Amino acid sequence: MRTVTQWLDEYGDSHRNPVNKGLHWLCVPPIVISVIGLLWSLPVPEVAGTLSPWLNWATIAAALSLVYYFTLSPPLAIGSVVVFAAMFAVVLALARLAWPLWQTCAVIFVVAWIGQFIGHVLEGKRPSFFKDLQFLLIGPLWLLAFIYRGLGLPYTPRRRAGQNT
Predict the structure, then answer these.
(1) What's the rounded Cα separation, in Å, for the pair 112 and 63?
(2) pLDDT exceeds 90 at position 1
(3) Residue 5 and residue 13: Cα distance in Å, rounded?
(4) How many alpha carbons fall within 13 Å on the CB side of residue 97?
(5) CA distances, 114 to each of 26, 68, 140 (Å)
(6) DSSP string computed for 89-154
(7) What crossing angle do the helices spanning 135-151 and 4-13 adopt, rounded to 10°?
(8) Residues 79-95: what's their mean pLDDT?
(9) What is the pLDDT of residues 106-156, one digit of tens each?
(10) How far apart, in Å, do the first and last CA atoms of the chain sit?
(11) What string of DSSP letters covers 68-87?
(12) If DSSP codes are grouped into helix, strand and coil, which group holds residue 105?
């Protein structure tokens, strides 16, 4: 299994062009928000709705993502909880618009992916997820890791004395 550092380094290899990096900052969060909104819009079994209005495909996907993030880096997973909370707040705000949530999210999704592909054309490299679909989950973590580094927050596991890498 790859470490968080290996995933982030490999993702970073195809994200060196400053314009591509900027487009990722502009496009990755809206893509995640739009996916959350699209999943939120999917019908759920009636029993799920009776248990909680929050029990839906979006919260299940977010929970599974957080489990995956926790296996890579508990500190980044904790940061991801905060980011997901903000993104769910945005989705709930979008749901109050005059048209269906899924339509708004579909437009956001398409426009943001166009931005992503423009960035990769400028980069001269294909998006990482063409190599491995797990990179779709690494993209948001790559941005969060950048924030952690800027704040001086550690996100990689500490090596114990005598532990070999």
Answers:
(1) 23
(2) no
(3) 12
(4) 13
(5) 11, 27, 17
(6) HHHHHHHTSSS-HHHHHHHHHHHHHHHHHHHHHHHTS--GGGT-TTHHHHHHHHHHHHHHHHHT--
(7) 100
(8) 98
(9) 999 999 999 999 999 998 888 888 787 888 999 999 999 999 999 999 998
(10) 13
(11) HHHHH-HHHHHHHHHHHHHH
(12) helix
Averaged pLDDT, 80-108: 98
What is the C-alpha to C-alpha distance for residues 94 and 118, in angstroms, rounded to an integer? 26
d(CA 37, CA 107): 11
What tokens does 77 get?
A: 């997973």
Say which DSSP state 17 is in.
S
Instruction: Name the strand (E) or helix (H) holding 36.
Output: helix 18-41
Residue 131 CA, distance from chain mean position: 17
Give the span between the Cα atoms of 28 and 112, in whole angstroms.
Answer: 7
| pLDDT value of position 165 | 45
Show the tokens assigned to 35.
């996916």
Write down the pLDDT at residue 159.
59
**Length of the chain in residues, anyone?**
165
Residues with Cβ < 8 Å from 132, sequence gap 6 or more? none
For the CA atoms of the chain, what is the radius of gyration? 17
| pLDDT score recorded for residue 46 | 85
Tell me which amino acid residue 37 is: G
